[in-house]
Design a protein that fits this description.
Oligomer: single chain
Helix content: 10-25%
CATH class of the largest domain: Mainly Beta
Shape: elongated
Strand content: 35-45%
CATH superfamily of the largest domain: Glucose Permease (Domain IIA)
Number of helices: 3
CATH architecture of the largest domain: Distorted Sandwich
């Protein structure tokens, strides 16, 4: 499987490399006579940088688009499957499926369906832990609504967690998007909610691990 580094990681990886390089030079000067500490710092620096490379990985995941399938928009664990009142756009009852992404998950978010983007809105907010029930309404977040060719509206909401401080959304209103295409990116631990019409049959159980472009969330 082909794996690349996501473009959102370029600056962080370059800055991180420079900072770690300078710190290691300083440590080698200060602890010149303490070889064990110098090597310990080098090893820790390498481990941290490998983690950053791992976090910003972008595996190639192709799929054949299917208008009858809703794919997972993110990698992670399903932490919520419930009917709730959605108050930002629909203002009615919707079926919410929430996927929690740990820092070890791939953080590129994908379009679960093909269609036209009808609504995009970014909200500043708090930084609760991403699995908190209120994080969907109170945290920093970005909401995207896609209308399929059959007129069904699917909402995807990117939510920043306690660690994450940067949500990136590529969606633009009236943009035609393709199922599996890249919707955006959230830096470090976070969550993605998907809101479906009430009555939609969900294909996955609570606490299941899912993968973007691989796991079928539901069928339309």
């Amino acid at each position: 499987m082909s794996i690349h580094i996501h473009k959102e990681g370029y600056k962080i990886l370059a800055f991180g490399f420079l900072v770690l390089l300078i710190l290691n030079i300083v440590v080698n000067i200060i602890w010149a006579d303490i070889e064990l500490l110098r090597w310990a710092f080098i090893i820790c620096s390498l481990m941290l940088y490998v983690f950053l490379l791992f976090f910003f990985r972008l595996p190639a995941r192709s799929l054949e688009t299917d208008p009858g399938i809703i794919y997972a928009p993110a990698d992670g664990k399903v932490v919520v499957i419930e009917e709730i009142m959605e108050n930002e756009y629909f203002r009615d009852l919707r079926l919410q499926v929430s996927i929690f992404m740990s820092p070890f998950n791939m953080h590129s978010n994908r379009y679960p369906v093909s269609g036209r983007v009808k609504y995009v809105c970014y909200h500043h907010g708090q930084n609760m832990v991403a699995w908190h029930p209120k994080s969907s309404e109170l945290n920093e977040r970005s909401t995207i609504v896609i209308e399929t060719k059959d007129g069904i509206e699917i909402m995807v909401r990117q939510i920043a967690g306690a660690v994450a401080r940067r949500i990136v959304t590529y969606s633009k209103e009236n943009q035609e998007v393709l199922q599996g295409g890249e919707l955006g990116f959230i830096k470090f631990g976070s969550r993605v909610d998907i809101f479906l019409p009430v009555g939609t049959e969900v294909e996955i159980p609570i606490l299941q691990q899912v993968k973007a472009n691989k796991t079928i969330i539901a069928k339309i």
